[in-house]
Amino acid sequence: MAQTIKLQTPLTDEDVSKLSIGDKVLISGTIYTGRDAAHKRLVELVEAGKELPFDIKGQIIYYVGPAPAPPGKPIGSAGPTTSYRMDPYAPVLMDVGLKGMIGKGPRSQSVIDSMKKNKAVYLAAIGGAAVVVAKAITDAKVIAYDDLGTEAIRELTVEDFPCIVANDIYGNDIYKEGVEKYKK
Amino acid sequence: MREINVNEIIPVVRKLCIDANYYIGEDVLDKIKEFYEKEESPTAKEVLSILLENYELAAKEKMPSCQDTGVAVVFIELGQDVHLVGGDFYEAIHEGVRQGYKDGYLRKSLVHDPIIDRVNTKDNTPALIYTDIVPGDKIKITVAPKGGGSENMSEVKMMKAADGIEGVVDFVVDRVRRSGGNPCPPIVVGVGLGGNFEQSALLAKKALLRPLNEKHPEDKWSKIEEEILEKVNNLGIGPQGFGGRTTALGVSIMHKPCHIASMPVAVNIQCHAARHKSSVI
Lengths: 184, 281
Hints:
- Chain A is α/β, with parallel strands linked by helices.
- Helix content of chain A is 26%, strand content 27%.
- Chain B is of the alpha/beta class.
- Chain B has a four-stranded mixed beta sheet with strand order 4-2-5-10.
- Chain B is globular.
């Protein structure tokens, strides 16, 4: 780990400029969930010039389809889903203010270019570490697209939500540089 | 002949679905610990320690270790001296899955129709059921929940006999290389060789059921498994694709005879959550 940085949402340009790939990040505040089906709807709204169900400026979207909440818990297991499926939609959302994405697995070059252009970052949560992640979520409520079930957009309140910086605003990519370093 | 009422199967399948998702096998934990010791990358070590913490927490909190509780893949070994009574055998399995996914607060991840109308079936059925008829008067049921992220990185290739074992090894290693961080490494690589197009895929999936601390029973195959594992771990992908030595925890091959013209090879990628639980009735 390069360093551990605490972040509070919404993110500013100054917040994201401090981050480099490999840094461990602990996020507190509000984040939003969304995956394939929700992204499609959000992009349709942007393209139609309509308002989104939440103010996206400076916000983070977490790619997750959580398990149902057991009694007494705000959310069930909630690890990240594979991010490349959101690649066709992510640049449109960054253009209207999205500052961060949390998921797992590498992103396409067009997403990486958009992150540089829009000063946004991609953070990797640990795939499969769904109970560790759920422990960092203190509240969850569905705010849009209830009909999508696990894929609905939720507003999460998080405290020290653990991630690793996978793409910073300078165009660096842990999935390329990390692998290059250990390839034999 | 032993008579078994299909309704007896329902609670067994229900429990297997829940247990497989809450409690990872000791063989997986031991392998992660073994690779943690050998891992050179500090980021990779951090990831592996988070995975161990997660499995411990899942068991303690009684929560699924991964939110993708998968498709319920159910393997049945049905003794030929069993007489099933009381209803539809497969419906009883679906009912067990339905109850397990509901009562265990597991995510329902199936849609009715793959393209046009992707609406959730809401109860995680249908289960995918594979039945083998075996000698005896017992039923062995194995539930192996399979997540989508790793399944999407799997592949079948119809190779030529002339491609030889080198061709097979190259294909498997290349499949892992192209998968990178997507299937949640460290992964387990199931390889199915022979049979025909569809049987190779099933062999690759069944290969994943072998405990990670067991070698292939035949030396010549176990050597090939070790060769593939070494090559895969030299790719540098590492846990989650962040770079490191621990890309795969194990490679498992199953093979069957095949047509003189064919050499089907299937790779089924399994994430570190190599979940499966069995029961015998």
